[in-house]
Amino acid sequence: MARINEIRRKNTNTKKKNQLGRGNGSKGTYSGRGSKGQLSRSGGNLNPTFEGGQLRLVKKLPHMRGFTNIFKKNFVALNITDLNEIFNKKSITIKDFREKGIIKNKEMIKILGNGDIKDSIKLEVNAVSQSARKKIEKAGGEIIIKES
Description:
Ribosomal_uL15_bac-type; ribonucleoprotein
């Protein structure tokens, strides 16, 4: 039978944790918590944003809360009436919108259905509303959807 002074730890690879608060033989008395106060007592903890009573940065800058969606798509909406006023072509591409300064770098174009169209046009855009699609196709036009 093994004696209590001959017992060894099974796994010596793991570091032995300090045994706190078990008398002065270990890390006794205050167990590394100091003498008094909220943090010396069990269950005492603080909000991670607490700054010692000073007004917290989280409260000073509420506009920093939330997030910005990095996958957001920026659309510029144009009605069919706008198309009639801006372009006098039978075929309109995304390049034409850029040359006119209607869309910039990463912006995309969406055609909305306000207004009437008489002539058939071939449109290359990023998105089209259902009403605009019906009006353009009824006039004999064609729509090509380009993914950004």
